[in-house]
Every structure is written in C-alpha cells, then in structure tokens.
Write a structure and sequence with these properties.
seven-stranded mixed sheet, three-stranded antiparallel sheet, globular, Aspartate Aminotransferase, domain 2, about 280 residues, 2 domains, 10 strands, about 35% helix, alpha/beta
Amino acid sequence: MFIDQSKIYPFPKVTPIRLPRVISLAESFLKEEDFSLTAKQSIIRMKDLEQTFRDWFNPLADTSPFPYMYFMNNGITQALETMPVIFKNRDISMLQGDYFWLKTIKAAVEVNTRTMCDISYESCPSAVTGNVIDTTWDSKHHILDCAYVGTTNTKTIIPTNTDYLLLGFSKNIGMPELRLGLLLSKKPILTLEGLQKTFSHVGLNFFNIAAKICKSIPILELASELKEYQSKFCNLYPELLPSDSAILTTTDDVSYRFYKRPNGTIRVPVGESITYCIKNKLI
C-alpha cells in the first residue's frame, strides 16, 4: 500500500524502512545500556565506537581520509549547523533541490550547476534523486552529506577536495528518533575536540546501541535487505522507478506532483509505505 503523504504532511518527508529485526535489536540493547559512565570511561568508549563505525561504513564510504570523528547528538542536522560556524560569514554553494537545511539556516546559496566556488555542499546518494552520483565540484572546500549511505549497496565515491564527511544512522538502520550523526574531518575542529575528546560532553548511550546493531548487521547485508523490499514494493507500483537508495523512487507520473523537488524532479519517498507493507505482510 502506498501511503500518500500529501494527506498527512505539508511537504514530502523522507522516512526510513523500519526492519522488524533492527527494532527488536534496538529494544533489547536499550535494556542493557549502562547510563553511569564516567568522563574517563566515555572518552575510552568514544575510541571504540569510532572504530566500530569506521569498520561498518567503510565498504560503502571510505572514512580513512578523515582522521577526526565527532559524535552529533542531533544527527546530521547538527553537523550541518556546525558548517556555518566553521565557515563564518562565507557562503556555501549547493545545487537546487538538494537537502534544504543549509539553505534553511541561511548558510548556503542554491545554484543551477556545479560552478567554481569557495565552499560546496552535496549529498550522495543524492537527496534530489536518491542515486549515487559524481559530486565533484571545482571548490576549495567540499562538504559531502552521506545521510543515505547504507540504503544502497553502491559505493559512494568521495571527491579528493572533501574536507567534511557527514554520516548518520536515521536512513539506514531506520532509527531517526535516536538522532545519531557523525561529523568526520580532515583537520581537528577545536571546539569539538575540547567538548568531546577532553570533557566528554556528548551523549553516547544511543551511539552504543547503534554500534551493537552495526556489529549484528553488516552494512552491505542491511543495504541488500532494504533494496529487496524496495524492489518488491516497486513491482506493485511500476510507475515508481527505484532509486539507488532503497527509500526513494522517481517518476514522471504527474499524479505524484506533490513530491516534485525545486529542480523539477519528482522524487517519491517510499520508506513509510514499505514499512507499512512489511508490518502487514503485503510484500
């Protein structure tokens, strides 16, 4: 069953596929979570978590060029809000129709094509189409938003001028309520170094749960399962063409015009619909 978001939300919302076995794991891991870590224990735990997450993401997004990792307690949104702090009073260029948050906080300007600029931002898999694309810009600094990594088994290529790599756990493991994100950098971000690595001012409990899920389900296995459900769903709705990301589709059918992106692409989120179909054994 396709859930028509136009009857629910004021604008399209990308929701994940909630796999029953992932939800079951999260519930069991939450019960055994230790909320009494000291600052010293938390700093040690951060190092363990970092390695777990690097190992998990590396088959689909090489994290090795980025030696510094920071934990975002408000997901990739927090990582994006860190960008205008780093690039104070400097515009970030982004393609029209890409993920809107930098534009919303007035940190980015939209352009129609990838042009020469100081700072560029793009998502891959693309928030415009859900496909893995070449995100190379002729820019001094590049921000690569990989929120959809783990929803496809196609590897994301990271341009050499990428200074910041953004990763998350909302779209792939399907737990957006946990608000978990990672900000990876080629250079240390001094404020975050002090807050997180010195004073351990970061909540790690939900990251611990995510890490245990990652150890239980390799990223390629998870992506393949999500893609199988997307394929089954799109067989029911052949007008929806599966994107590389399992939770997105595209179409030329104007009856889906509610889902049109600012650049004209009709990108239809299907995570919510697929979750419904799984729960009700329709696929």
